[in-house]
Amino acid sequence: MFPPDLLARAAALVARYRAAGLMAATAESCTGGLIAGLLTEIPGSSNVLERGFVVYSNAAKEELLGVPPSTIKRHGAVSEETARAMAEGALGASRADVAVSVTGIAGPDGGTAAKPVGLVHFACARHGATTVAREERFGDIGREGVRLASVRVGLELLEAAGGL
Question: Which pTM value belongs to this model?
Fold first, then answer.
């Protein structure tokens, strides 16, 4: 299901997080749980993945992660502000040490001139550290392409947050 290079990176992340005693949480919108799914492909991931939130709707972002409705209204669901609130909310609603979030427009429709298909916002929060945000514009590379590229970036953020 996942490419071999991603599985190898996920295995390395699980091993390093486990050795460091770190737990992770995911808050996923456009990826629909693929980051958590990738991690759970790895034996022993139950020692590392604390929980995953699939928050596809705005209501789910608000109810499960505490994203303020005003943030979504002012900036949109696909924004740095919402991604930050999602990651910080996942950290607060879990027992994880690190949380990664992803929200974007995978397509084929739903894009606008200001927020085109392929625009994805990410954030990574860790207790005692400043939340890191990242924007990617993958372009209209197809729904599967955007989602898989987003999994790669989410993994990168988890690697960096874990000092890996």
Answer: 0.97
